[in-house]
């Protein structure tokens, strides 16, 4: 029985780990997306290292060079990057 | 028996994880092998020479001197099976637009930003044709090339096929932009969702 519980704990731990990996993959895609947006807009950034979601289509992106931008979709349907 | 089932469960979880990693690895491997050919296409496109101070000052140079058309001609002539009188590849803009919308190589924000920039450029071409702006065709060509390079740099790793199609359609799209009668049917798609 003890063995069974230990194995169950191991499985749960592994599942949680995999869920974490999956979430990280999502974050990678948004960081990549925002990196591309900031680059397309011609703003100095390098690579986006972290993203904080503020709302729908509204994110704060932190760049590797220390800059921070609020990237959002404005009322006219344009993607805007505002330096914070 | 219980231990056996647990072992099988663990193996399944492990196999799923490795499968995910393997897919990513295969994708990156394919991209790496195709990257070189795309990169060559991008390098071949001479966009930089037109950024001369004279252009910035607005001195209108004949658009025929824009060197961007030359590499494409060279490429065509060196392609086996295509003679000197080979026609440029037919342009299917709606299909190209659909593929750009559906590609997973670019994120949603990037797609919207690109669409904004394409719309801006098309607007500049319309104004140019109406004679409303003091912009030269050489400057428009430069902007067009820059936008295309940005797009190609985004696509070449994850969707090389689409990148190749765009490279092949480069001159055809330019032909549409520079011809007011061809450009007129393409109305701005403001407010359209991606």
Descriptors:
heterodimer, A: 84 residues, alpha+beta, four-stranded antiparallel sheet, 1 helix, 4 strands, 30% strand, B: 194 residues, mainly alpha, 8 helices, elongated
Provide a descriptive summary of the structure in words.
The complex is a heterodimer of chains A (84) and B (194). Chain A is of the alpha+beta class and 84 residues long. Chain A has one domain. Chain A is 46% helix and 30% strand. In chain A, strands 1-2-3-4 form a 4-stranded antiparallel beta sheet, covered by helices on one side. Chain A is elongated. Chain B starts with a helix and ends in an 11-residue tail after the last helix.
Note the run of SSEs of chain B as H and E. Answer: HHHHHHHH
The biggest sheet of chain A amounts to: 4 strands, antiparallel
Q: Which chain pair has the greatest contact?
A: A-B, 26 and 23 residues
Tally of DSSP β-strands of chain B: 0
Tell me the Rg of chain A in angstroms. 19 Å
Please tell me the overall pLDDT of chain A.
Answer: 83
Question: What radius of gyration of chain B results from the CA coordinates?
Answer: 22 Å
Instruction: Give the SSE order of chain A as H and E letters.
Output: HEEEE
Kindly estimate the percentage of residues of chain B that lie in beta strands according to DSSP: under 5%
Q: Which structural class fits the helix and strand makeup of chain B? A: mainly alpha
Strand count of chain A: 4
Sequence stretches where pLDDT stays below 50 over 5 or more residues of chain B: 25-85
Give the overall silhouette of chain B.
Answer: elongated
Assign a percent range to the helix content of chain A: 40-55%
Which percent range describes the beta-strand content of chain A?
Answer: 25-35%
What is the molecular shape of chain A?
Answer: elongated
């Amino acid at each position: 029985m003890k063995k069974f519980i230990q194995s169950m704990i191991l499985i749960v731990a592994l599942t949680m780990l995999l869920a974490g990996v999956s979430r990280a993959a999502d974050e990678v895609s948004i960081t990549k997306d925002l990196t591309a947006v900031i680059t397309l807009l011609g703003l100095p950034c390098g690579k986006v290292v972290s993203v904080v979601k503020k709302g729908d289509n509204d994110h704060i992106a932190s760049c590797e060079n220390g800059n921070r931008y609020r990237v959002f979709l404005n009322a006219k349907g344009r993607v805007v990057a505002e330096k914070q | 028996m219980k231990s056996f089932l647990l072992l099988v469960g663990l193996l399944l979880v492990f196999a799923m994880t490795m499968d995910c990693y393997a897919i990513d690895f295969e994708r990156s491997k394919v991209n790496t092998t195709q990257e070189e050919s795309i990169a060559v296409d991008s390098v071949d496109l001479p966009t930089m020479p037109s950024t001369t101070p004279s252009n910035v000052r607005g001195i209108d140079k004949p658009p025929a001197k824009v060197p961007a058309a030359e590499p494409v001609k060279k490429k065509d002539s060196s392609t086996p099976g295509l003679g000197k009188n080979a026609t440029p590849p037919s342009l299917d803009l709606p299909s190209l637009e659909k593929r750009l919308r559906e590609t997973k190589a670019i994120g949603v924000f990037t797609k919207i930003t690109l669409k904004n920039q394409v719309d801006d450029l098309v607007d500049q071409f319309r104004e140019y044709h109406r004679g409303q702006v003091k912009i030269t065709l050489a400057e428009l060509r430069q902007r067009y090339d820059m936008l295309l390079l940005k797009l190609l740099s985004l696509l070449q790793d994850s969707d090389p096929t689409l990148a190749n199609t765009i490279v092949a359609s480069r001159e055809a799209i330019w032909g549409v932009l520079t011809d007011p009668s061809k450009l007129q049917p393409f109305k701005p798609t403001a407010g359209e969702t991606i």
